[in-house]
UniProtKB/TrEMBL annotation, chain A:
Domain of life: Bacteria
Pfam families (alphabetical): ABC_tran
This protein's name: Dipeptide/oligopeptide/nickel ABC transporter ATP-binding protein
Ranges of residues in domain ABC transporter: 7-249
An MF annotation (GO) of this entry: ATP binding
Keywords attached to this entry: ATP-binding, Nucleotide-binding, Transport
Cited InterPro entries: AAA+_ATPase, ABC_transp_ATP-bind, ABC_transporter-like_ATP-bd, ABC_transporter-like_CS, P-loop_NTPase
Coiled coil stretches, renumbered: none
TrEMBL record, chain B:
PANTHER family, alphabetized: ATPASE AAA-TYPE CORE DOMAIN-CONTAINING PROTEIN (PTHR43297:SF14), OLIGOPEPTIDE TRANSPORT ATP-BINDING PROTEIN APPD (PTHR43297)
Subcellular locations according to the entry: Cell membrane; Membrane
Main localization of the protein described in the UniProt heading: membrane
Organism: Demequina zhanjiangensis
Pfam families: ABC_tran (PF00005), BPD_transp_1 (PF00528)
Protein name, as recorded: Dipeptide/oligopeptide/nickel ABC transporter permease/ATP-binding protein
């Protein structure tokens, strides 16, 4: 556990569901997010990536272990799940089509992020315009509705909503997987720029290893709710220690080790 | 202004006009016509005349005046009853979603059982308990209408409450009550307004019914229902006395229903974003070869509103060839493939100079069997292409039993062989399972097996690996490659992922805005030997795994 970790996940166990339907989704998960770093979290569907994000956001409870944020325990037995009290961690959800209220203008949505109680756009217009400019949208966006924007633009708006609160940490849950490749590339470029300009700290959840390589400093590989491997991104991808990571890397079409020859039956 | 005119529709205008006219009558009539309506002593039961347009009732009062004066009380009662249904109903229906789960389940069950109970019977019981009075009619009908509002509100809340924007607002610290008024109500408000309008119409009739049977308005007050009941003794001799209040009821009912219908249309989801008109200009693909299995010339697909989706596309697929069709969403790649398989949506028009698979002319219908057996289809999401209620064996053997006249047992055997080819172990057992019992990758393999079962000459695979995990994707790609090598089955592989296409395909067609902009061999693609700027952009945007350890090379 590094000293300058902004967020530390320690031996986390999360069980979802009740009674007979309860299922352990995360087992002994440990992870550090250093300040100013982009940490990738990769794994396939059902590996527990989103559950970890939701536990960090206080949507799920942890049955054992702890999540510490700036030295304060925010999840784990005995701690209250974080709710509205602390806005320092912001979530950007996967689907840009369901993360913006269709009946509120972009300006209203961003104003609400600044002032959740009253959400008055007039009082925060300058800040809203600045936030939109930070994600390369201009001030004409303020009075328009989400359906007037493309998927990539909506995802920019969702990022602007997260940034406008000046969070310490952004949890990005598969934010590019619903987008076309060229739009995806724009979002990744935007994140790289934000990291340089604002020293963004981020947990970047994805199933795309190439994006991890392009964007992330650190990476943790999840398999069936356990961390199969973690470390500096370039090192984990170039010389994986676990069989599973090796298999993941070899499955990327066009990547090293990828072949379409069927193994002998 | 143009926006408003565009969105106001005929029923809404008509409904609002009727309701406005009735409102005017309700406000004005009691002031101006009260005397004519209540004064006794005219000639009883007189026929329509210049003085009494609709005649007089048994006590000599003007029938028309009484019907018009009754408008105010009737409408106010209906309005009151609707409010009494709507406000508690909406609050109950929405608030259960903000409370604990056990309470929610209990309340929802309760609501369901009360909805099943006829509301008029419930109202009769309530009215009987409260005793005949104007207020009891309103309370009875109002309370009886609560469950309908509660149920619809809770159903709609359920669909909205877990959407990301409400979760995000909650995480941002938006108070519950604010979340309710700011995000929830506006998003479920439309259907509730519609329900409000129709339950107003219903309340109108039900309150009139209560008054008619004597449980509602009591003399000397009168509403339309009471007027009807007064008219009953002389309905054969003096039909006008009954017709006037009935006509008013019908007009008000129609007005409310039209308003509801108009509101529903008015609040219909946003007009779709205008489709961009694709650029013209195409690349002719390789000159015809005799071995071409698929031949498409000048394919044009047009949307219902006249927007061209695919224009003038020509391509060939040789026997045993794997051709990739790449492009981003909206480029027309799926539309091209679906047109080739005659599976385009009903709303589009498909025209082509040639549209041929082998000797099948796909522009014509008929020869369904040949179409079903010559072309195999694999779709993006296997969970959506399979019926969740049926066992796999039944639905996957359908093509064999229907089109190849195989007996069930033979069809099953063929499919078991197919399953083994795509390396599904324990095939017999899998056939007796339901789709949800298999993983996504396994289901996609069963779809491939099923597509192969007829020994098709062409497989059209529309983003078959997009919904799959990367390790599973690699396995599915391997299966497709092996099938192609073993049986020389041609494959049209549609994808947005250049990496996947490069790995699998012999030849790649890049599609952009309804046209093929470039054709590449996989070698050209691998060498990044591309000329069209769009292809270049696409390549630049596609992240690839290089595995150079940047931090080791550059310690900074």
């Amino acid at each position: 556990m590094s000293i300058d970790a902004l967020l530390t996940v320690r031996d986390l166990h999360v069980t979802l569901g009740h009674g007979a339907r309860a299922a352990t989704v995360l087992t002994d998960v440990s992870l550090d997010i250093p300040k100013g770093a982009i940490v990738g979290l990769v794994g396939e569907s059902g590996s527990g990536k989103s559950t970890l994000a939701k536990t960090i956001m206080g949507i799920h409870r942890a049955q054992a272990g702890a999540i510490e944020f700036q030295g304060e325990t925010i999840a784990g037995p005995g701690s209250r799940p974080r709710r509205s009290a602390n806005r320092a961690i912001q979530l950007v959800p996967q689907d840009p089509y369901s993360s913006l209220d269709p009946r509120r203008t972009v300006g209203q949505t961003l104003a609400e992020a600044i002032d959740p109680r009253r959400a008055r756009l007039a009082a925060h217009r300058d800040a809203v315009v600045a936030a939109l400019e930070a994600v390369a949208l201009d001030d004409t966006a303020v009075d328009r509705y989400p359906h007037e924007f493309s998927g990539g633009q909506r995802q920019r708006i969702a990022i602007a909503r997260a940034l406008i609160t000046e969070p310490e940490l952004i949890v990005a849950d598969e934010i590019t997987s619903a987008l076309d490749v060229s739009t995806q590339a724009e979002i990744i470029d935007l994140l790289i720029r934000l990291r340089e300009d604002k020293g963004l700290t981020m947990l970047f959840i994805t199933h795309n290893l190439a994006l991890v390589e392009r964007l992330c400093d650190q990476v943790a590989v999840l398999l069936h709710g356990r961390v199969a491997e973690s470390g500096p991104a370039s090192q984990v991808l170039a010389s994986p220690a676990s069989d599973y990571t090796r298999q993941l890397v070899a499955s990327v079409p066009g990547g090293p080790g990828f072949t379409l020859e069927s193994p002998a039956p | 202004m143009t926006d408003l005119r565009r969105r106001l529709n005929a029923p809404l205008v008509a409904g609002l006009a009727i309701m406005a006219a009735l409102a005017v009558v309700a406000i004005v009539a009691p002031f101006t016509l009260r005397e004519a309506a209540d004064t006794l002593g005219g000639a009883p039961r007189s026929a329509p005349s210049a003085e009494h347009w609709l005649g007089t009732d048994s006590l000599g009062r003007d029938v028309l005046a009484r019907s018009l004066v009754a408008t105010r009380l009737t409408l106010l009662m209906a309005l009151g009853a609707t409010a009494l249904s709507a406000i508690p109903g909406i609050l109950i229906g929405a608030s259960v979603w903000f409370g604990p789960r056990t309470l929610r389940n209990l309340v929802l069950r309760l609501i369901d059982s009360t909805v099943a109970f006829p509301s008029l019977v419930l109202a009769l019981v309530i009215a009987a308990i409260l005793g005949p009075a104007t207020s009891s009619a309103v309370i009875a009908i109002g309370v009886a209408g609560i469950p309908a509002f509660a149920r619809i509100t809770s159903n709609m809340t359920a669909s909205v409450i877990h959407s990301d924007y409400i979760t995000t607002a909650r995480l941002l610290g938006v108070p519950r009550w604010r979340n309710f008024t700011r995000h929830l109500m506006p998003n479920i408000g439309g259907p509730l307004l519609v329900l409000g309008a129709s339950s107003f119409a219903l309340a109108l009739l039900e309150i009139s019914s209560l008054s008619f049977v004597g449980l509602g308005v009591q003399s000397p007050d009168y509403d339309w229902g009471r007027l009807l009941s007064e008219a009953l003794p002389s309905i054969y001799s003096m039909p006008m006395i009954a017709i006037a209040p009935s006509a008013m009821l019908i007009i008000a009912g129609v007005g409310a229903m039209l308003t509801g219908d108009g509101l529903a249309r008015h609040l219909d989801p946003w007009s779709s974003a205008p489709a961009r008109a694709p650029r013209t200009g195409t690349v002719t693909t390789t000159a015809p070869r005799t071995s071409d299995l698929v031949q498409i010339d000048d394919l044009r697909v047009t949307a219902a509103n006249g927007t061209p989706l695919v224009h003038g596309l020509s391509m060939r697929i040789g026997a045993g060839e794997i051709v990739g069709l790449v492009g981003e969403s909206g480029s027309g790649k799926s539309m091209t493939a679906m047109s080739l398989a005659r599976l385009q949506p009903d709303s589009v028009t498909v025209e082509a100079a040639t549209l041929r698979v082998g000797d099948l002319d796909m522009r014509k219908g008929g020869r369904r069997t040949a179409m079903a057996t010559d072309i195999g289809l694999i779709f993006q999401d296997p969970t959506r292409s399979l019926n969740p209620a049926l066992r796999l064996g039944g639905q996957l053997t359908e093509v064999l039993t229907v089109h190849m006249s195989m007996l069930r047992r033979a069809a099953r055997r063929t499919l078991v062989d197919g399953f083994e080819r795509v390396r599904i172990r324990d095939a017999e057992h899998r056939l007796s399972q339901h789709p949800h019992e298999l993983s996504g990758g396994m289901l996609q393999r069963t779809m491939i097996a099923s597509a192969l079962a007829t020994n098709p000459r062409l497989i059209i695979a529309d983003e078959p690996t997009t919904a799959l995990d990367v390790t599973v994707q690699a396995e599915v790609l391997r299966q497709l490659k092996r099938i192609n090598q073993d049986d020389a089955t041609a494959i049209l592989f549609i994808s947005h992922d250049l990496g996947v296409v490069e790995a699998l395909c012999d030849r790649v067609l890049v599609m952009h805005q309804g046209s093929i902009v470039e054709e590449l061999t996989s070698e050209q693609l691998a060498a990044r030997d591309v000329s069209h700027p769009y292809t270049q952009r696409l390549l630049d945007a596609t992240p690839s795994l290089s595995l150079t350890d940047a931090r080791q090379e550059d310690p900074a």
